Amino acid sequence: MERMIWAIVLAAGESRRMGAPKLLLPFGGKTVIEAVLDSVKASPVEGILLVVGAGAAPIEEKAKKYGALVALNPDFRSGMLSSVQCGFRQLPLEAEAALVFLADQPAIRPYLAEALIKAFRSTGRGIIIPVFDRRRGHPVLISARYRKEIGSLDPEVGLRQLLDRHPQDILEEPVDDPAILRDLDTPEDYVRETKD
Fold it and tell me: Tens digits of per-residue pLDDT, 30-45?
């Protein structure tokens, strides 16, 4: 029997550059966070863990209808790595790997997760990164065997430290979708994504 692959959705950012809570902005008839969770739920993951920061009640409310577990990251202001660490700490022990999604990438489609999981299963590599036009994007699949090491990474360097330490365990999976490179940081990003 295949062991479980979970999704960790990083939703603890402060939306400083957007100037409004970006995950609650409208996107395709729902909110940004709902669009992301719809896509994750439609992918072949067994469970969803949403990592949030302070003032996350409205996001948690939306996450409930997707059956997502919610983890509060008390250190969310120290950057994205702290949310990845929080997610891996809360990941169920039976999880074999986690797909790390950014909560501000509402254009990501379920087939991307499927392609990364397939590559993970068929190659045995522990870090699968989607690549479009020679650029790495998200979501990234990381084996749970790195759980402990992720917990001890240097916040100054971030998750890149894990990739630098294990280049032989990385598989770059080519995908034909520029959405893996786009997130919503600024009002201009939001206008671009809602126009497409």
Answer: 999 999 999 999 999 9
